[in-house]
Amino acid sequence: MSTVTTASADRDDRSAGGGRPATNGHGGRPRFGRGIRSNERIAGWLFVAPVIVLLGVFFLAPIIMAFWVSLTDWQGQGSPFKSGVPFVGGDNYTRLFTEDGLARRDFMTSIRNNLYYVAIVVPVQTVLALGLALLVNNRMLKGKSFFRTAFYFPSVTSSVAISVVFLFMFANSGAINGILSFFGIDGPAWFSDARGLIHLILGVVGVDNPPQALSSGGPLGLTWWDWLSGPSVAMCAIMALVIWTTSGTFMLMFLAALQSVPVALDEASELDGASRWQRLRYVTLPLLKPTMFLVLTLGLIGTWQVFDQIYVMSQGNPAKTTLTPAFLSYRTAFKDFDYGRGAAISFVLFLIIVVLTLAQRWVMRDRDEPRRRFRWLR
Amino acid sequence: MATLTEAKRRRHGGMVNTVVGYAVLIFFALVFIYPFVIQLANSFKSEPDAAANPLSPVPHPVTTDSFARLLDGDFPLWLGNSVLVAVVVTVGRVFLDSLAGYALARLRFGGRKAIFATIVAIMAVPGVVLFIPKFLVLNQLGIYDTYTALILPLLVDAAGVFIMKQFFESIPLSLEEAARIDGAGVFRTFWSVVLPSARPALITLTILSFQGTWNEFPHTLVAVQDPSLFTLPRGVANLVSGALGSGTQYPLKLGAALLATIPVAIIFAIFQRYFVRGATEGAEKG
């Protein structure tokens, strides 16, 4: 392959990617002599070499190694690549899905917990972030930067440190229960309360014991009654923490999008007599649609990865109701020394997240133009 | 407000909206800030006081007992480890990420597109699925439970390369061309002409790297187990999981969490706009 064709092909690609007119792509740069060109080739490889080596050794190779381990019964002794390690094929995966037993029950419980967690955290943090962004974006607001800072600051702090603070606030006689008792509510013992929210609501209307139809069977190793538990009280405390820490970042994304909504558009619709709600519904929200998709999918991807908070606050307890796939894979490998099954769990989780990411790409495929607004030197 | 008639709303709407708007904002500002007040106040309380009045912002009596105990224990060691890891990783990332970012943006060499595609793919790999893989490779290389294990895997990050590539593509070519025509080599051009003009991007990357490494927790969990190699998040997590013996000892834990938060808080206060830029840049790469 000649250097000249590679170079011009690359340059075409670059000008297309940067959104510049294709005709400028060729005229922008003087042609260097052959010596400089080969210099560039060597320098290019030297410049990327450290990144390639480190990412190769600590990202790509480990993923392949872990896939191998997920097909074995390695218990952590010696090297997993020696001949003595038993090869079990897809057993670690089938134990998660088709064989009845503790492995599947724990895995499905973690999936259930994470599903409820996603179903509550994603909508709540999105609505909260959007609401705060709309309020902060008010043209007349004084102290705008104070509010923005206040809402964003939790996002930049250490997840471990902030988990400690919330552990203290949700303690039995802690701040949250203190506030609840002010309103005459007897707060629960948050982190030892495994009761599910849906079960609690059913209890209020008198359904204390599971109906026979729900408790006698169900899919994938859990009864219908277990699937329909709702998030436990303990999980609610963790969800509160996560919503509190992530809303600020998403608020900033909405804010960046709102600031690119032309003021004239808003004013014009105001003069036309549109109410505040109508302006929000028919002018602002449609313009925020790309950001909304982005926040929702980033939220989806992020919520399937919850780990730090679980590790610090509950370790999957009480009664496994805060177990998530990420924490279960860690625990299975590093506490139960069943590295094969731990790795299998993380590959299933990987698959879930990849599917969600691809779904995002697919939904966003025609929306490249608005996303450019986030380009970082606007 | 929905019950107001249209006429009333015309008259009062603006003011009512403003008052309600401020009330909601102040309520949420309290919700977002008060946990830090609780953290600060309770780390200066005695244990019975913290247990009895967790909400009170005023310690009674004020005691620095928990900090004295922290300084007596392993805390200074964790702090030192955190500083070491965060500084080395930040310097490494800023240098190596911008080298690679520059090459991918400006230098023409075979395989460039494939490398960039791989880096974008790596950015999409969720961190939590890498716990076991990372442990396996550190174990295999014989560096598990060493400073090398804490630092080396964090030394470059795909997102940083991506950010720098985007930036280098956005600055004009003319400066570099002048330098190259004057006969400066590729590295000379990069080091003394391109990098100085990349200051805003370098500051953003420095801050994001420092904050990310300072707060990093799961990596330490799979890289080391010796308490003398713990960084602050790992040490604080260890305090919580019962390394303290009797009692809840919340003032001590909150004090440790507070000290672990302060450096990032200071950097945030000074460089807030770079954090904001980083967050919206995150939106771009998603």
UniProtKB/TrEMBL annotation, chain A:
It is a multi-pass membrane protein. Keywords: Cell membrane, Membrane, Transmembrane, Transmembrane helix, Transport. It comes from the Bacteria. Residues 111-360 form the ABC transmembrane type-1 domain. The chain crosses the membrane at residues 42-69, 115-137, 149-171, 232-258, 287-307, 343-363. The keyword Membrane applies. Belongs to the binding-protein-dependent transport system permease family. This is Carbohydrate ABC transporter membrane protein 1, CUT1 family. The lineage of its organism: Bacteria, Bacillati, Actinomycetota, Actinomycetes, Micromonosporales.
TrEMBL record, chain B:
Residues 79-271 form the ABC transmembrane type-1 domain. It is a multi-pass membrane protein. It is found in: Cell membrane. GO terms for biological process: transmembrane transport. Keywords: Cell membrane, Membrane, Sugar transport, Transmembrane, Transmembrane helix, Transport. The chain crosses the membrane at residues 20-38, 75-96, 116-137, 149-168, 189-210, 254-276. The keyword Nucleotide-binding does not apply. Its main location: membrane. It comes from the Bacteria. SUPFAM superfamilies: MetI-like. GO terms for cellular component: plasma membrane. PANTHER family: ABC TRANSPORTER PERMEASE PROTEIN MG189-RELATED, ABC TRANSPORTER PERMEASE PROTEIN MG189-RELATED-RELATED. Belongs to the binding-protein-dependent transport system permease family. This is Multiple sugar transport system permease protein.
